[in-house]
Specification:
Blueprint (H helix, E strand, L loop, with lengths): L1 E5 L4 H17 L4 E5 L2 H5 L8 E4 L2 E5 L5 H7 L4
Parallel strand pairs: 1-2
Antiparallel strand pairs: 1-3, 3-4
Length: 78
């Protein structure tokens, strides 16, 4: 599973990256966490606000900081 954090480097973007890494560690298994900070790459997803979480190419959340449990739920894990 590939998890992408879209954001240009704001505090919420950095926090979402950390939360996502914590969620992946909690779930276990092989998951790739990628920080996307290039504005042209972010624009490809047609989002209006950051941070955003993209899982396997699908935008799951935009404009808010998620909790570890929320990220796990979006990953389809229990």
């Amino acid at each position: 599973m590939k998890l992408e954090i879209l954001g240009t480097g704001c505090a919420k973007c950095k926090a979402l990256e950390e939360v996502t890494k914590q969620a992946v560690a909690k779930v276990g298994g092989f998951h790739q966490v990628v920080k996307v900070d290039d504005i042209m790459d972010i624009m490809k997803y047609n989002i209006l606000s950051t941070p955003a979480l993209v899982i396997d190419g699908v935008v799951k959340s935009t404009g808010k900081l998620l909790s570890v449990d929320e990220v796990i739920a979006l990953m389809g894990q229990k």
